[in-house]
Design goal:
The chain has about 220 residues and is mainly α. It has 9 helices and 3 strands.
């Protein structure tokens, strides 16, 4: 294997690691990322970090400003609307056409159980991470690796948008039981009803995030 290939593989792995940190909610919208700190913690070169930053910037997850460095994007209202439009197209279709005995069903169940356990401990960021896993499992029902990869990028954008909410309890708590209900409908052989329930769920979630975005603009004295 050539050095070029090795370097590219390392860049891809680091980009995936940083993307996973975004999905886990470790960084907030607008937060600056320290190139030096990442080099030290990951024990990699600056060139590798920069290449990974370029990958995530191209995906719309990070932004780069001259003399200011790299920071997590602050999603626009238009991008939030688009994220939820794509989610409804992908997730609801995958659920409506999903096979109730598909292996992804077990992943959905595990995510629900983790969310319930995190809720019991009042770990709301943990609830949010379990919620991400639930929706990732829903997309797995479609048996499309392309969709899985695309959706992992979308989840990172979504978690950044969630960072606009100042109250993770308010954001995530309602969806623990909603996910349980969707799973119950799907497992009982009612995928179309489960899909409709998910659609209503996503509409509700979108409204919450857009309201949070509007409040953020108002606090900054910016007209949307």
């Amino acid at each position: 294997m050539s050095r070029t290939t090795d370097a590219q593989n390392l860049t891809d792995r680091i980009a995936e690691l940083l993307r996973e940190r975004l999905i886990l909610g470790e960084w907030a919208p607008g937060q600056r990322l320290s190139e030096a700190a990442l080099c030290e913690s990951l024990e990699i070169s600056r060139s590798t970090v920069r290449e990974a930053f370029r990958v995530l910037t191209k995906e719309g997850l990070l932004s780069h400003e001259p003399n200011k460095g790299v920071s997590v994007v602050v999603p626009s209202m238009a991008s939030i609307i688009d994220i939820y439009r794509v989610r409804r197209m992908i997730e609801c279709q995958a659920l409506a056409q999903g096979y109730p005995m598909h292996p992804a069903r077990e992943h959905m169940r595990e995510a629900v159980q983790k969310a319930q356990a995190s809720r019991a401990e009042e770990d709301w960021l943990g609830v949010g991470t379990a919620n991400m896993a639930f929706h990732k499992a829903v997309v797995e029902l479609a048996d499309s690796e392309r969709l899985n990869v695309m959706f992992s990028h979308l989840l990172a954008e979504l978690r950044v948008a969630f960072g606009l909410m100042q109250d993770p309890h308010f954001l995530h708590a309602p969806y623990v039981d909603m996910n349980q209900q969707i799973l119950a409908l799907f497992e009982s052989g009612k995928p179309v009803e489960a899909s409709q329930s998910l659609n209503n769920y996503l509409v509700h979630s979108e409204r919450l995030i857009l309201a949070a975005y509007a409040r953020r603009l108002a606090e900054k004295g910016i007209k949307g």
